[in-house]
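Model it.
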Amino acid sequence: MNEPTLSAPYVPTEPYAPDPAAVELAAERGPVVWVPDAYGRMVPMPKHLAPPPMARPEPRDLTPLPLLDPLAQRLMGAGIGGGAFAAGVGYGIGEAINAIAGAGSGALVWIALAVLAWRAPVRAVAGACGSTVHIRKAVIKRSHFHG
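Modeled.
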């Protein structure tokens, strides 16, 4: 019988032979830029594949600032001024109340002195009859020596 023979498939002698290399001309290559990779090394990359450059930040204003900002200065000034105003008003009201109280009690003293002065000559003119009391105090001191 005629049996078909099994033959092995075609295997090239150089299985991994590269295709004919394409020639790249320098004029055909685009510009190359160097960018940092994940490890900080600089690697070449075609410019059209590179990430866009970082926008340049605006320059900062380096003028020295006040120790306290103006709003805090105004609030602090208002607090100190308001406290001084309240203390002054409280002191003034206290002085006014003391003056009124002093005038009231001082006026009562002056009225009492005026009434006594007005009534005193009447008693003196009426004959000066009154009771006189003489107080005599005697102190007797004796020394005793029991020795």
